[in-house]
Each structure stands twice: as C-alpha cells, then as structure tokens.
C-alpha cells in the first residue's frame, strides 16, 4: 500500500549526520546518529527537499515588501496576480503550506458545520492532513475508493451525493475534491476529460469542485494540456510552489474574488497571515517563472530511473504508472529485503529514499537531480541489494554455527 509513505522514516542530511524522525505529528521524536562520510548525496525522498538556488536567494534579498496582513505587500500581490492569471481565475492568496491551502478551501466551500465533502480514500487531504477538515472545520468526509489512476468512479460520486432533502438524518454534500497529480497513486495524472465530467456532476447537483493541485504543473506538462484548462471546471485550486517547482515555502489558492475574500479571513484565523511575506513570495515567483520548463526533464529522469529499477531482480515496477516525477517500486515477496533496511543501507551509500509501505519504496525527482545522479542512484541501489543479501547470508551462517556448537555442548 502506498498510503503509508510518510509514516515510517524521514531523514535529512546535516553535514555528516542524518536525523531520523517519525512523521507522526504528535510526537516529533528525533534520533541523531553518525553515518559514514559520503562524497555525494542524492536526495530522492521528495521534491520538497530542494534548496533555494542563487536566483531565488537574490530575489529574496532585494524583495520589495510591506505588511501583507494589511494587504500591502507588493511582491505577494505580484505572485498572487501571476498565479491567478496562469490559472484563469479571478483572484489568488498566498498561504504557508499546501495543508493550509486545502483546509481553507474546503472550509470556505463548506461553511455550514456538518457539511460533507466527497474525496478519495487515498487522497492527501484524507490521509496526510491530520484530519483538519473534521477537527477544525467540522466537515464530514465521505470517502470513495481511489482507482489505481487516482480517479474515483463517476457513478460512485453521483451515488454518494446527499442533498438537503435528507438533512434530518445525513450530512449535506457541498463539495467534491480531486487531486492532480495523485501522489499516493504514484503521481498519476487526472485527464482533462475526467475532470470535466466531475465538474459537470458538481454543477448538476449544485455543489463545488476543489482540486488539490499540489503538483498540477507536473500534470499539465505530462499531459500536454495548459494548466488553466485542467482546472477550468474547478471552483478552487490549491497550487503548491514548494514541491515540483522547487520554491522553499508556500502554496497559492485560486478562485473567485468572493471565495478569496473568505479564504483570506480564514487564513488569518488559522495563523497563516504573515507580515513581510514578500521575502518568501519572491523566491516562489522565481520558481514559477523558471522551473515549469524543467518538469519534463524530471519526468524523463523518473522513467529512466524506473527502467533501471525494473532490471533489478528483486524489484518490480509498473512502468506504465510512471507519468510524472514519482517512482514507486515493490520489493518481491521472495526477497529477504525490507524497505526500511534498503533505505538504511542506501543512505550509507549517499542516496536518500523513503519507504512507501512494508513492501515498497518511493523515489521522487526534482530539478536538482541530474542524469548523472540517476546513474549514481541505480549503482548505489544495486550495491545496497548485494550488501543486504550478502550480510543476510553471513548472518545465517553465523547463527547456524552457533546452533551447531550449542547442540555439541548439550551432547
């Protein structure tokens, strides 16, 4: 199952140290340990690990700023206007994170507490955002199965919609949420035809459509469809700038002017209003300006990586599922390799990766990964597999010898 991607292991490099921490938001228990010095580190944990480049740092240093809570930060306004224009929406709002962007969007559409939102059972909003729509928004989640391509069956969506005629007993459906690309389904892209159909259903039943577009630009590039066309039927979209695009911080919500007015009030309520936020928006603007054309290279390298992994005897990869910048590979049941152990050995060899489940590993490409990094990673992965299997054989022999000695002594 891909849905456990963040629950076991996360690390980050700090010179010659790796900090290992649980992703459990309630504990943040951290453990530091020494690892072998490596001359090279290739970080494939996520596209959120990129470092601000020189152009971003320069833009941050000279950013024209003011108080954005009061509505006067010119650099924030510039970024918001640009994203709104690209998406062909009326207005936009910069927020600190994708989680806040989705929470605000869902809450604006579901102003009546106890409202219901239809979303995928493997969606980021449902799985990884701490249940915020229910704990903070008082909104009921009606989950439907995500298909392997990230979609939900249209027929099931229609059947799940509940109107006000049953409000004495049931929550009223006010929103449908889609995710594009769909992370837990391997970065699969939702087609414009599918989104249009869901949008038509939403309009027919008088409900809203929100798209979690954390990697919507990846979807646009992979499908060859302008990003504004992908979100044409959406009433709101959350656009993450710190994933595929490589900005250090931030997401932007787009929608109607009335929607954004309400969103701005909720941003303040949730503690997301920031003062001279233009310092962050300046870097995000550079990412938006410079890095969209680089996404096709990320996708090409993801396929290159997947094809290399497919050649490893102990792995299986669904090459057809590699549509954007993510690669999930399964470790065959006949192998004695665990994802945790593989990632542990890989970090000693200079490659950082994340277990996706008890049988699979997730790798994510970004603009700071080169063709050479892909070859280095494949070589390191093959070496890690050999090391684990060799160590396992040696340990098995040692145990067998100990048992033999014990039996001899007993006799």
TrEMBL record:
<feature type="modified residue" description="N6-(pyridoxal phosphate)lysine">
    <location>
        <position position="243"/>
    </location>
</feature>
<dbReference type="GO" id="GO:0006567">
    <property type="term" value="P:L-threonine catabolic process"/>
</dbReference>
<dbReference type="GO" id="GO:0005829">
    <property type="term" value="C:cytosol"/>
</dbReference>
<keyword id="KW-0456">Lyase</keyword>
<dbReference type="InterPro" id="IPR015424">
    <property type="entry name" value="PyrdxlP-dep_Trfase"/>
</dbReference>
<feature type="domain" description="Aromatic amino acid beta-eliminating lyase/threonine aldolase">
    <location>
        <begin position="43"/>
        <end position="330"/>
    </location>
</feature>
<comment type="similarity">
    <text>Belongs to the threonine aldolase family.</text>
</comment>
<dbReference type="InterPro" id="IPR015422">
    <property type="entry name" value="PyrdxlP-dep_Trfase_small"/>
</dbReference>
<dbReference type="GO" id="GO:0008732">
    <property type="term" value="F:L-allo-threonine aldolase activity"/>
</dbReference>
<comment type="function">
    <text>Threonine aldolase involved in threonine degradation to glycine. May play a role in the removal of L-allo-threonine.</text>
</comment>
<comment type="pathway">
    <text>Amino-acid degradation; L-threonine degradation via aldolase pathway; acetaldehyde and glycine from L-threonine: step 1/1.</text>
</comment>
<keyword id="KW-0663">Pyridoxal phosphate</keyword>
<dbReference type="Pfam" id="PF01212">
    <property type="entry name" value="Beta_elim_lyase"/>
</dbReference>
<dbReference type="GO" id="GO:0006545">
    <property type="term" value="P:glycine biosynthetic process"/>
</dbReference>
<dbReference type="InterPro" id="IPR001597">
    <property type="entry name" value="ArAA_b-elim_lyase/Thr_aldolase"/>
</dbReference>
<dbReference type="InterPro" id="IPR015421">
    <property type="entry name" value="PyrdxlP-dep_Trfase_major"/>
</dbReference>
<dbReference type="InterPro" id="IPR023603">
    <property type="entry name" value="Low_specificity_L-TA-like"/>
</dbReference>
<protein>
    <recommendedName>
        <fullName>low-specificity L-threonine aldolase</fullName>
        <ecNumber>4.1.2.48</ecNumber>
    </recommendedName>
</protein>
């Amino acid at each position: 199952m891909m849905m456990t991607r963040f629950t076991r292991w996360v690390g980050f490099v700090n010179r010659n140290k790796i900090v290992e921490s649980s992703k459990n938001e309630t504990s943040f228990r951290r453990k530091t340990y020494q690892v072998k010095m490596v001359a090279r580190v290739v970080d494939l944990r996520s596209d959120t690990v990129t470092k601000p480049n020189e152009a971003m740092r320069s833009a941050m240093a000279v950013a024209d700023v003011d108080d954005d809570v009061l509505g006067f930060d010119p650099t924030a306004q510039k970024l918001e206007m640009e994203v709104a224009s690209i998406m062909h929406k009326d207005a936009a709002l910069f927020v600190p994170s994708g989680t806040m962007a989705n929470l605000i969007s869902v809450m604006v559409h579901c102003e009546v507490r106890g409202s219901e939102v239809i979303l995928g059972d493997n969606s980021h909003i449902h799985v990884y955002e701490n249940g915020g729509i229910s704990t903070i928004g008082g909104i009921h989640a009606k989950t439907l199965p995500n298909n392997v391509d990230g979609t939900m069956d249209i027929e099931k969506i229609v059947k799940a919609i509940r109107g006000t005629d049953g409000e004495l007993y049931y929550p009223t459906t006010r929103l449908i949420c889609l995710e594009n690309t769909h992370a837990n389904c391997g970065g699969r892209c939702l087609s414009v035809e599918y989104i249009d159909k869901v949008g038509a259903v939403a309009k027919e039943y008088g409900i809203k459509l929100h798209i979690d577009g954390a990697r919507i630009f990846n979807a646009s590039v992979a499908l060859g469809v302008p990003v504004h066309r992908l979100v044409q039927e959406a009433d709101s979209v959350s656009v993450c700038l710190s994933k595929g695009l490589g900005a250090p911080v931030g997401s932007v919500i787009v929608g109607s002017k009335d929607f954004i007015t309400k969103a701005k009030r909720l941003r303040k309520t949730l503690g997301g209003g920031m003062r001279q936020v233009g310092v962050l928006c300046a870097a995000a603007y550079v990412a938006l300006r410079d890095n969209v054309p680089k996404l096709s290279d990320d996708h090409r390298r993801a396929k290159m990586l997947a094809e290399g992994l497919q050649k490893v005897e102990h792995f299986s990869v669904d090459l057809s599922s590699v549509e954007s910048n993510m690669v999930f590979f399964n470790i065959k049941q006949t192998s004695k390799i665990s994802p945790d152990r593989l990632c542990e050995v890989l970090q000693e060899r200079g490659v950082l990766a994340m277990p996706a489940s008890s049988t699979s590993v997730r790798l994510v490409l970004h603009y700071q990964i080169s063709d050479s990094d892909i070859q280095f990673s494949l070589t390191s992965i093959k070496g890690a597999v050999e090391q684990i299997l060799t160590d396992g054989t040696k340990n098995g022999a040692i145990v067998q010898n100990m048992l033999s000695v014990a039996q001899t002594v007993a006799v």
